[in-house]
Write a structure and sequence with these properties.
158 residues; mainly beta; Immunoglobulin-like; ten-stranded antiparallel beta sheet; elongated
Length: 158
């Protein structure tokens, strides 16, 4: 019988969320770094004039992004912080008197995980994020939204 090797990768390769009325489209996937080390990718693409707030805003900033993962005994979440890749911008928010860090167009969040490959396993996560739309009329619209991430990892079959 042939050896079928299923790479440790996301079950739904390049899963993309497309919620109606949501100005942010999400894509989730993983890349293999080493035999049991993977990098999770969570990519947000924003509609024009919308901004997504950074993970690294001040603690009391009400719209900052928060990423959490559901505990799984088969997966070790690296202790390093989630990394952000994109063009980071800052502005003083008049409504809160806090400096806000945000991204336009696109931001990619990455996180390392270590897999204990004794069986198939999944990792689920939740992204609570804040977005802002500054219209040409000067009106500001802010929203808090939630997106769920799903990553599936498979053992090698022989």
């Amino acid at each position: 019988m042939r050896t079928l090797v299923v790479l440790l990768a996301m079950l739904c390769c390049s899963y993309t969320s497309r919620s109606q009325g949501n100005p942010v489209n999400w894509e989730f996937y993983s890349t293999k770094i080493k035999d049991t080390v993977y990098q999770l990718h969570m990519v947000a693409r924003m509609s024009p004039s919308w901004y997504l707030y950074s993970l690294y805003n001040e603690t009391n900033f009400p719209f900052k992004t928060v990423i959490t993962f559901k505990p799984n005994n088969d997966i070790i979440i690296a202790e390093e912080e989630v990394k952000e890749k994109g063009v980071l911008q800052t502005i003083l928010e008049k409504s809160t008197s806090l400096t806000a860090k945000y991204y336009e167009h696109k931001v990619e969040f990455t996180k390392l995980v270590y897999i204990r490959m004794n069986r198939e396993t999944v990792l689920t996560g939740k992204i609570d994020y804040g977005i802002c739309n500054q219209s040409s009329s000067g009106q500001t619209e802010r929203k808090r939204l939630t997106e769920y991430a799903f990553f599936a990892f498979h053992k090698k079959y022989k």
